């Protein structure tokens, strides 16, 4: 794998640390700023809303900016947002700082996914994207537990100062390792917006919103569940968060090759397994070893959904891979915000600390239903496309038939009719020299 993927993974590590560390710090932030844990949960939602707003906005504004420069600008904004969070004088300013830190998240991963795919040959693109996301999952093994421990001993502000320092290190890695990748000649905001109207892209984004919300309905309150439902002491919160991160990493490692091999089956299987784990979670939470096992499984099956969803929207919006990829992260973080809010509603209603798991299971089933509907419609479109192509090939002169056959896998709007990754982006061997 190219070293540039390491720079992307380091950046993802920093983003993952700041995104997920708030789950471990919620009780401390709530105590320090004089608010309740469910209200402090708005800090999770604030970051997610920043991602939702920033992904299409910043991607559109930077559509003509060279990829490497865009990555550096986005990481600089990320660093400023975390510094603002560390210096926030009250809860309102901290909400604003979290929103600012979230603005570059989706755009960074949108651009980063396209860059990762262009750095490798066709057939390895899902693995390259998964390698970038590996930094996100490793953050939950090392970054989030360490940052939580730091926050417990030195205060939550110290955590965000360290994350800002990680942002600076990531900028240095990007500047040193990522090659110059010019913007494609056909890159145009209006063209990308039109491609986002593809029905399969819309259904893919909706799958992410509902399916992934199931993960965050539980994960947002995992630190509180650790002490109030599982019976562990506060010192064990970092261990539980690390186990979730291990599960995330295992899921991400498995998702890359599985997605390259069979995209939709990987998506269906991970969403179905997520629903099962969420239903079982409340029944195992009072047996500590079983609860810890379920935490690992939740991280694994939850994050196995990310790579197939990322590749699906990039494949189906092949004329708009950057905006589609960024919009997918908007969808993921809309899921984060919605899952955190719905989980908080369940807790505030007095249904118990494990009630968000049942809320999450319903959301995961809804995501699976949307994904299955999209797959059914895609197969129907593929059959119709092949019938039209076969008719055209039969009616064409024999000299024209190879061309008709070559056009067979795509619909009139350019939607691919199979789930394997397409050569939607120039590979390292076919793209512009860098």
TrEMBL record:
The keyword Cell membrane applies. Residues 4-379 form the Major facilitator superfamily (MFS) profile domain. The chain crosses the membrane at residues 38-58, 70-89, 95-117, 129-150, 156-179, 200-222, 237-255, 267-285, 291-313, 334-351, 357-377. Pfam families: MFS_1 (PF07690). Keywords: Cell membrane, Membrane, Transmembrane, Transmembrane helix. Residues 394-434 are annotated as: Disordered. It is a multi-pass membrane protein. It is found in: Cell membrane. Its main location: membrane. It comes from the Bacteria. InterPro entries: MFS, MFS_dom, MFS_Efflux_Transporters, MFS_trans_sf. Residues 394-409, 423-434 have a biased composition (Low complexity). PANTHER family: CHLORAMPHENICOL EFFLUX PUMP RV0191, PURINE EFFLUX PUMP PBUE. This is MFS transporter. It comes from Streptomyces pakalii.
């Amino acid at each position: 794998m190219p070293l540039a993927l390491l720079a992307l993974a380091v950046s993802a590590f920093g983003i993952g640390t700041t995104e997920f560390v708030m789950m471990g710090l919620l009780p401390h932030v709530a105590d320090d700023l004089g608010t309740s844990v469910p209200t402090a949960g708005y800090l999770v939602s604030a970051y997610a809303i920043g991602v939702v707003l920033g992904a299409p906005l910043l991607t559109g504004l930077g559509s003509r900016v060279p990829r490497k420069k865009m990555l550096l600008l986005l990481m600089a904004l990320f660093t400023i947002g975390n510094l603002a969070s560390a210096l926030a004088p009250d809860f309102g300013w901290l909400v604003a700082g979290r929103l600012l830190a979230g603005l570059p998240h989706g755009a960074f991963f949108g651009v980063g996914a396209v860059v990762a795919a262009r750095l490798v040959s066709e057939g390895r693109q899902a693995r390259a994207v998964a390698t970038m996301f590996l930094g996100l999952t490793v953050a939950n093994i090392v970054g989030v537990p360490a940052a939580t421990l730091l926050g417990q001993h030195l205060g939550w502000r110290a955590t965000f100062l360290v994350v800002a320092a990680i942002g600076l290190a990531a900028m240095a890695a990007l500047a040193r390792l990522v090659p110059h990748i010019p913007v494609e000649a056909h890159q145009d905001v209006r063209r990308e917006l039109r491609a986002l109207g593809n029905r399969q892209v819309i259904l893919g984004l909706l799958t992410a919103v509902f399916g992934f919300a199931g993960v965050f309905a539980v994960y947002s309150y995992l630190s509180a569940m650790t002490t109030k439902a599982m019976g562990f002491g506060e010192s064990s919160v970092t261990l539980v968060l690390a186990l979730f991160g291990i599960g995330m990493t295992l899921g991400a490692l498995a998702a890359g090759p599985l997605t390259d091999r069979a995209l939709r089956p990987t998506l269906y299987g991970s969403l179905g397994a997520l629903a099962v784990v969420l239903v079982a979670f409340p029944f195992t939470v009072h047996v500590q070893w079983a609860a810890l096992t379920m935490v690992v499984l939740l991280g694994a099956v939850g994050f196995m959904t990310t790579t197939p969803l990322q590749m699906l929207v990039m494949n189906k919006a092949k004329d708009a891979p950057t905006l589609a990829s960024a919009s997918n992260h908007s969808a993921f973080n809309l899921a984060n915000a919605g899952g955190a809010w719905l989980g908080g509603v369940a807790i505030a209603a007095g249904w118990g600390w494990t009630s968000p798991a049942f809320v999450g299971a319903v959301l995961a089933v809804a995501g699976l239903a949307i994904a299955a509907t999209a797959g059914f419609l895609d197969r129907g479109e593929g059959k119709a496309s092949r019938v039209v192509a076969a008719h055209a090939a039969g009616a064409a002169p024999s000299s024209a038939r190879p061309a008709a056959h070559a056009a067979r896998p795509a619909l009139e709007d350019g939607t691919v009719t199979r789930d394997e990754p397409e050569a939607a982006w120039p590979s390292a061997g076919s793209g512009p020299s860098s």
